[in-house]
Design brief:
The chain has 303 residues and is α/β, with parallel strands linked by helices. It has one domain: Nitrilase/N-carbamoyl-D-aminoacid amidohydrolase (4-Layer Sandwich). It is 24% helix and 28% strand. It contains 9 helices and 14 strands. Strands 5-4-3-2-1-14 form a 6-stranded mixed β-sheet. It has a 6-stranded mixed β-sheet with strand order 6-7-8-9-12-13, with helices on one face. Bound molecules: D-[(amino)carbonyl]phenylalanine. D-[(amino)carbonyl]phenylalanine binds next to loops. D-[(amino)carbonyl]phenylalanine (ING) binds next to loops. GO terms for molecular function: hydrolase activity, acting on carbon-nitrogen (but not peptide) bonds, in linear amides. InterPro entries: Aliph_Amidase/BUP, C-N_Hydrolase, C-N_Hydrolase_sf.
């Protein structure tokens, strides 16, 4: 067996006035705790460095770009990279990426995976952007990811590191089976994802009471149907008056929830994950080579 001790490093709310240094301090405190518990890998949330700014309609691009990172690591995040390398812990976290590519400025909802030597070994840019692109004043708060980010252009790559095959996803991605299957087809053994999920979804308030259920259902299904571990880490609690769900979870390839957060604040959720556990599913019930019938699935990509 290949045991990896993994932590979901849940973050409580980040308010608009909370600068990056204060957030990095909180992330370093969780990293230190992870070191004390012998962790190999720590998974931080989506957009971990700032408040969830897509909840506001902004027209001034400079105001929007204040929430983005123009380089990574940056002066603010360097202490996190330094501490992780000193502790020999791999980590991943999400941030708003501002980058010049193909001769123009691009903006993505991004996450990176850094190995135990401090090297960025995987980058992912969010593909399923939820919400809307224009101001919708009828909503109690906005969800403008389609306005502020481009659709990710890196697909869902996987990388062999820390003794296993790792992949990443971000928030809304976890609700779509295709996310896990594209990585499952590449042999993924552990999917690392962060999320910022408001409890209230203005278009469907009657679903608000099912928020944690849908969160768990999505990750448990993805894990089981692809024989992979899924680590889902929340940024949660009340940010600028908007409540976001916690329930950060470590899900086994069986679909069982091995560990889960119990607060709506900074909380380290730790589990020993045997990367060999997915084998029985990948070779058995979900043996893609033996049982999958791609010719029958064409509608999935043609429609
Ligand atoms: N957030 C939410 C998510 O998919 C959402 C969007 C909110 C969907 C409420 C459904 C209900 O978890 C992000 N950032 O994708």
């Amino acid at each position: 067996s290949r045991i990896l001790t993994v932590a979901a490093a849940q973050l409580g709310p980040i308010q608009r006035v909370d600068g990056r240094p204060a957030v990095i301090k909180r992330m370093c405190a969780l990293l230190t705790q992870a070191g004390e518990q012998g962790c190999d890998l720590v998974v931080f949330p989506e957009l971990a460095l700032t408040t969830f700014f897509p909840r506001w309609y902004m027209e001034d691009q400079a105001q929007v770009d204040a929430f983005f990172e123009a380089q990574m690591p940056s002066a603010d995040t360097q202490p996190l990279f330094d501490l992780a390398r000193a502790l020999k812990i791999g980590f991943c976290f999400g941030y708003a990426e501002l980058v010049e590519e193909d001769g123009r400025l691009r903006r993505f909802n991004t996450s990176i995976l850094v190995d135990k030597d401090g090297k960025i070994v995987l980058k992912y840019r969010k593909i399923h952007l939820p919400g809307h692109a224009e101001d919708e004043p009828w909503r109690a708060f906005q969800h403008l990811e389609k306005r502020y980010f481009e659709i990710g252009n890196l697909n869902w790559p996987v990388v062999r590191t820390m003794g296993g095959v790792m992949g990443m996803a971000i928030c809304n991605d976890r609700r779509w089976p295709e996310t896990y299957r594209v990585m499952g087809l590449q042999g993924v053994e552990m999917v690392l994802l962060g999320y910022n999920t408001p409890r209230h979804n203005p278009p469907a308030p009657e679903h608000d009471r099912l928020s944690e259920f849908h969160n768990q259902l999505s990750m448990q299904a993805g894990a089981y149907q692809n024989g992979t571990w899924v680590i889902g880490t929340a940024k949660c609690g009340v940010e600028e008056g908007c409540e976001m769900i916690g329930a950060s979870s470590i899900v086994a390839p069986s679909g069982q929830i091995v560990a889960q957060a119990i607060t709506q604040d900074d909380e380290l959720v730790v589990a020993r994950c045997d990367l060999d556990m997915g084998r029985a599913y990948k070779d058995g019930i979900f043996n893609f080579a033996k049982h999958r019938q791609p010719d029958q699935y064409r509608l999935i990509v043609e429609r």
